[in-house]
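Dissemination and training. As part of the outreach component of the grant, students in the summer workshop were shown how a complex can be specified as a set of sequence lines and then modelled as a single object. The example used during the hands-on session is reproduced here so that future cohorts can follow it. Participants entered these lines:
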Amino acid sequence: MAYSDKVVDHYNNPRNVGSFGKETPGVGTGLVGAPECGDVMKLQIRVNLDTGVIEDAKFKTFGCGSAIASSSLATEWLKGKTVDEAAKIKNTDIVNELRLPPVKIHCSVLAEDAIRAALADYRDRYADKLDGAGAPVASA
Amino acid sequence: MNHFEVFGLPRKLGIDTAELQRTFYELSRILHPDFHQGAPPAEQASALEASARLNAAYRTLRDPIARVEYLVRLEEGRATREGAAATREAPPELLAEMFEIQEALAEAKAGGLDADGRRRLAAERDRLLARHREEELRLAGPLSAAWDAGDAGERPRLLDACKRALATRAYLGTVVEDLTEALGESQEGHVTHRRH
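and obtained this result:
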C-alpha cells in the first residue's frame, strides 16, 4: 500500500521526537497502545503554567509509518494551542491531513487517544493550580 | 448465524476439538459442491455459502485462542448494543513495560549489537516468549473454564479479564517478534504476529 507524501515526510523526518525530563514543570504524559498491532505511543505536552499555552510537545512511537506520522503531526499541531484548544483536535483532522486510508484510521485514533491522555495527565498533575477547564485560575 | 450456531454448539469455550473435527467432516461432505452439481443454481449457491461459513467457523473454533477472541467480539457486540461502557484493554504497567523494551531495543540497534548485547536481547526475548505462552495457557485453560462456569452477573468481569489477557498476549507477541527480527534469527518456531 502506498503512503501519502505527507506520511512519508513525517516518517522520514519525524518532528519533535524525544521526551521531557522528569523534573520539567508543566508536563503531561500520555502513553497509549493498540493491542491488535502492538503499537505503543508516548506523547507529552509542556504547558506554560502561567498562560495555559502548550509551548512544546514531544513523542516517541514504536509502530507503523502511519502511527509515527500521526503522532508527529499531533505534536506539531499541539504547539501554540491552549489546553482547551488542544482537546478539540480530532482523529479525522489527522486522517484528512495525512490522507490515511481506511485501514490506517486506527493510527489516527491512537494519536487522538494519546493527546487526550496527555491532557488528562496534565490536568491531574496540576489540578490544584487549575480551574475546571484546564486553564490557569489566575488568567481564567 | 454465528460460528457456534453453525456447529449447533452452545456459546461456550470448552469445546471437544476431536468431536468438532468429526462434525466438520460430516457437514463438509453434505455441503460439498460435488454433491450439488445437478441442483438448481440457487441451491448450489446456498450450499457454497454454507460451506464457506462452515470453514470459517471451524478455523476459528478449533483454535482455543481464536475462540476466545471470537467470543469477546460476539459479547462486545451485545454489550455495545446494551450501551455498556468500553473497558480498558491493556494494563497500563504492561504498556509502560512494552515501551521500555522497545526503547531499549531501538538503542541497542542504533549502537550496533555486540555478542553481549545479543545475549541480553535473546534472554529478554525468551523471557517474554515464556510469558506469551503463559498468557495463552491462561486463556485456553482457567479463563475459558471460568467463562463457561460463570453466570450472567459475572460476565462483564470475566470478559474484561479475557480482553486484558488477549491484549497482553498481542503486545508480547509483537515485542517478541521485534526482538527476534533484531537478532536476525529465523522466525520459525516463534510467534508470528504481523505488524500491519
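The two ends of chain B are 29 Å apart (CA to CA). Students were then asked to discuss how this feature might be tested experimentally.
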